[in-house]
Every structure is written in C-alpha cells, then in structure tokens.
Design brief:
By secondary structure, this protein is α/β, with parallel strands linked by helices. The chain has twelve helices and eight strands. It has an eight-stranded parallel barrel with strand order 1-2-3-4-5-6-7-8, surrounded by seven helices. α3 packs across α5 and α6 packs across α7. The longest helix is centred in the middle third of the chain and has 17 residues. It binds 3-methyl-2-oxobutanoic acid.
Amino acid sequence: MSIAQRDLKKVTTNTIQEMKRKGEKISMLTAYDFTLAKMVDSAGIDVILVGDSASNVMAGHQTTLPITLDEMIYHASSVVRAATRSLVVVDMPFGTYQGNSKEALSSAIRIMKESGGHSVKLEGGEEILESVKRIISAGIPVMGHLGLIPQSIYKFGTFTVRAKEEEEADQLRKDAKLLEAAGCFAIVLEKIPAKLAKEIAELVNIPVIGIGAGGDVDGQVLVLHDMLGMTHKFNPRFLRRYLNLYEDITGAIHQYIDDVKSSDFPNEKEQY
Ligand code: KIV
C-alpha cells in the first residue's frame, strides 16, 4: 500500500496496535490549538496528544498541576476541529481521576462529549487502576503514562530520570502489565533508562511510546513547541530541536517594530 493511500485512512487505537505488530514506528506530537494541530495532522502524524503540558506551554505555569478540566476541554476541542486523520488523545488533568473512580469516569465522559477527543491519557499504575478500568468499561480508550509522571512532581521532587533503582524498575514492569491487563491501548514511558524501556516494550503487547526512553520502543512523542524551538530554556538530553522558532519569531517581531517606527510599514501596496 502506498503512503498516500494509507494517509487517507483515519488512525484509530487499532491502527497503532497493528503498527506495533508490524514493527512500524508510531509518531506522536502534542498540540493545543487549531492552527498548529492542522499542520501536525496534515503532515501525517499518527497521534496528537492534547497534553496537560499546555499548563506550562500555553499558560506559563511551573507545573502541569494547575490546568483544569474546562481548560483541557477547550484545548482538546480546538485540536479535534483540526484533526481529520490523526488519533487525538487528551490528558486527564491532575485531580480529575485520582482517588475516586466515579469522578474519573465523569471527567473522562466530559472530555469525550464536550471536546470530541478519541481517547484519554492518565498518569500512574497500580494506584489508579480502578479509575482506568471504570473508564474503559464505559467504552473510552485509555492510554497509560508511566516513569516520570509530571503530575507527581511534588512527590518526586525532581525531573531526573526515573526507575534507575531496581525497586522502582520492578514496580514499573508490574504497572505496565497491570495497565495492559486493564485494557489500556498504549502506554507512554517518560524519562526512564533506554534498556528498561526496551524490556517493557517487549513485555507488553500494546504499543509503548517513549519520551526520553530511548529508541527501542514502538514510537516517540515530543512536545511540539519544544521540537520546533519555540521554547528555548528547556534543554533535556532527549530533545531534538528541528527548528529554532524562538529566534525566528522574535527576529520577525523586531523587524516589524523597526518597520512601524520607521514608517516603512505599511507601504503603498499595503493600503487601500
Ligand atoms: O503533557 C504532555 O505533553 C505529555 C507528554 C510529555 C507525553 O504527557
């Protein structure tokens, strides 16, 4: 099948599971608004994540904790309007699923109904399993997220690599198996040793998508604004920058200011 033919097909949770079976890598990027989501979708990305990293990237918070369910629904509905092909996964924000599986289900239902997203993502393993099962039992696909889970940053106290010690690595293996058994369609592994990520990708039959987890997993995810170089003070080792838009955009804005101040803009052709 040619790429052009395949591109016409909508990506579903089944598609990415099939990709794992065939050994085809899964591409995933974040998006939080219509305009960038349109570009990401048209470029042919497999999965768009409406990440709660919107809390940092769009709202300027220090952590992902403050973003609300209403705000996530706003971002997700903008992305869904742009996505004609990609599978849209929406992060469930902090405080909407931990501890109470009934509340978790209501939050997930609001995301699906009000944004039109195709699935949700939750951070954690054994401790949130009841919520995961309840959401899946309502027919909502769930992506898991293990390793460095930013909603637990105050528990970790640091953004350094997780599961370097055997005890935490063992819990991670156990959590991955539990999420698979609960019916998750995929798992994100964030910032863990590449060797452990490879082992987990082999241990479970569902796709494992890495960020800072090495190349021997089933796919990769990055925050769009980081890989485009729109953010510039965040430089983890795992980040590959494909553009330096921070400099390009501020350069263009400097030029605009100069043109306005010098009365170069607008010129005769730029007026009525
Ligand atoms: O919120 C987010 O952007 C994420 C990715 C880093 C996986 O969860």
